Amino acid sequence: MSSPVVLGIESSCDETGAGLVRDGQLLGHALASSMDEHARFGGVVPEIAARAHVHAVRPVIRQALDMAGLRLSDVGAVAVTTGPGLSGALQVGLAGAKTIAYALGVPLYGVHHLAGHVAADTLEHGLLPDPCMVLIVSGGHTSLLLVRDLARDPIVHLGDTLDDAAGECFDKVARVFGLPYPGGPAIDRAARTGDPRAVPFPRPLTGSSDHAYDFSFSGLKTAAARWAEGHTGRELPVADGAASLQEAIADVLTRKAVAACVEHGVGTLVVVGGVAANSRVRSLAEERCQKAGITLRVPPLKLCTDNGAMIAAVGDLLVRSGAEPAPLDVSIDPSAPLEYAALRPAASPAASLAGVA
Ligand code: KG4
Ligand code: ZN
Q1: In testing the pocket of ligand 1, which one of 249, 275, 280 has its CB within 8 Å of the most ligand atoms?
Q2: What pTM, to 2 d.p., does this model score?
Q3: Contact in structure between 330 and 110 (CB atoms under 8 Å)
Q4: For 120-134, how does the pLDDT look when each residue is reduced to its tens digit (9 = 90+)?
Q5: Cβ neighbours of 329 (radius 10 Å)
Q6: Which CATH superfamily is domain 5-118+304-356 in?
Q7: Domain locations in the chain?
């Protein structure tokens, strides 16, 4: 018997995503973004994001179903991001997911957003090898993880950021450089015509044995801001600044990730999250993994940034591993630590949706 079609819903930040996955196959997905509505504020405004999700969630699910040639009644399980993220935004997705799961009488799974980023890669490259090293680099998180069975095993953190995330550094420095929001893609574009050796930006925590796999990007952000201030009254060579910043971030990320693979004898590195879309992060990871004999896996660009397919992918893995569904009263956890792919705050299993159905 084939496994059920899993509907995944993502609404933790400014993208409303829906995806449909069965047996590791992506059947359809759709995305709406409120990014343009936040641009003039230079960052995501939580209330605007939450309202946009309310408007987008139904059409996005409809579009994903249309793309897959399926009807809502074909959905056999629902997975939704329950954290981490903006609380109002998460609430909208969870309310939608509960409604559908309850109405259809199908199980509901609360999913950790970052596990979604990891699972995104399985839609393109198949199941992850056990173990694998995962470098997760997004707007809010930067971590180096040792992952075994994503659906079953605890996720081991080898290192995390001590302050800013890599994406945050891109976004904040872009603002100082006068580039548009979101900053990561803007820096990536500006860097194309710049010299990555033009500015000797620091490589934070690369010499520290205490923090071999931790990251710190706030000093780099400050260094970039000081460099920009040093040009007051003169034209800022933005392309050189962008290329040099991008080089520093890509250097630190890939150096630590490859060193972690070598030390732990892990043969596969998976780079995921919004910053995995960065052209230099991708090319330097490729170069260094090849030299070290490590297999590199990076999801296709459209699956790197937030989307619903990645949440459906986690749901599909959970369903296939026989994981217990979430209870109907499951709530959001805006600052959920990444310990397991499924987020199941303590609740009585008797109240589970599967039981209700
Ligand atoms: O994973 P994501 O879509 O959302 C979070 O969960 O945070 O990541 C968004 C982050 C933003 O900081 C954005 O600037 C960054 O990913 N990003 C990039 C690129 N595309 C997106 N950073 C560098 N280069 C890119 N091409
Ligand atoms: Zn994300």
Answers
A1: 275
A2: 0.93
A3: yes
A4: 999 999 999 999 999
A5: 12
A6: ATPase, nucleotide binding domain (3.30.420.40)
A7: 5-118+304-356, 130-298
